[in-house]
Amino acid sequence: MNAISEQINLFNQNYRELTARFDHEYGVLWAHMNPAPIPCFSSGILADMRDYQAIIQSSGGVIATRGRIRTIDYFVLASKVAGVFNLGGDLRLFRDLIIRGERDKLFQYAKACIDVLYANIINYDLPITTISLVQGDALGGGFEAALSSDIIIAEKSAQMGLPEVLFNLFPGMGAYSLIGRRIGTKRAEDFILSGRIYTAEELHEIGLVDIVAEDGYGEMALYEYIKKQNRRRNTMNALAQVRRRCNAVSYEELIDVTKIWVDAAFRLEDRDLRMMERLVRAQRKLAVETTEAEVEQVAA
User: Which of 144, 172, 259, 270 has the fewest C-beta atoms under 10 angstroms from its C-beta?
Assistant: First the structure.
């Protein structure tokens, strides 16, 4: 099967936790995450995303829609869940695997996260600009996913951060590597150890968010950015290549850090696991509140 035919099949995939669409006019390939019941990196969303990414990587950077061939110029990671980009790792799974002593399964989960992250970091080995559109909370692995893109556009009410230190762990799926390359390793360590949740504007001042948009105008800001970039796309693609060459994040680096994370996870004590359980309940509560708000919005 050739690359173009593979791309035609892209939209015939029955993804359970991911919605794909293509904007032919601007060459924007969207991936809207919709994991359920909790908007975190479930095994389901990881499988859907990796399958989606594999098709993109094998596409040659082209897609066929409406009988025409179009290059994929931009890949946008976003969310279908109102008020939530992604709440991060599956804490319930983490806790259960640690309690049962299933180290290999925890590593395999972490590796699946790295595989998804790394494909985005290397731009799918294609001249594609990657963008994260954050319209809500991006915590832990959700923030790491956003950081894996070339550009982060966030709405003002979005909150982002790395709360892993609250249960005596650290974010092990790329945060140190990605933040360190953006603002320096010392500031990255301070950021990770703070455990703080930051506003979009605070992160813009730090240098971790590129564009802040008014609430409800994130997608408009994204297209304004694209229109501007299209006037100098050759330059931007070349600079992206330079950045990846001079500031590369290797797959081996990410995997090595993840192994350290797994070792640290299996050193957690009972009080740490109890704190993790409290955060699991908080994730569930937020998921319920979000679903109820969506139902009320539809009813209205």
Answer: 270
What 8-state DSSP symbol labels residue 166? G
Residues in a beta bridge with 79: 33
What is the per-residue DSSP string for 234-255? HHHHHHHHHHHHHS---HHHHH
Rounded to whole angstroms, what are the CA distances from 79 to 36, 103, 205, 264?
12, 30, 24, 30
* DSSP 8-state class, residue 38: S
Can the peptide bond before residue 37 be classed as cis, meaning omega within 30 degrees of 0?
yes
With 0-12 / 13-18 / 19 or more C-beta atoms within 10 angstroms meaning exposed / middle / buried, residue 134 is buried
Selection from 258, 259, 269, 260 nearest residue 95 by Cα: 269
pLDDT digits (tens, 9 = 90+) for 46-69: 999 999 999 999 888 898 776 788
With contact defined as beta carbons under 8 Å apart, do 131 and 85 qualify? no
How far lies 148's CA from each of 100, 145, 174, 278, 300, in Å? 31, 5, 8, 28, 37
Identify which of 62, 179, 84, 75 has the alpha carbon closest to the alpha carbon of residue 131. Answer: 75
Cα dihedral value 146, 190, 247, 240, nearest 10: 40
User: For residue range 74-128, what is the model confidence (pLDDT) as tens digits?
Assistant: 999 999 999 999 999 999 999 999 999 999 999 999 999 999 999 999 999 999 9
**DSSP character at residue 289:** H
Contact (CB, 8 A) for 59 and 100: no
* Nearest residue to 128 via CA among 224, 15, 236, 256: 236
Q: What is the DSSP letter of 41?
A: B
pTM: 0.91
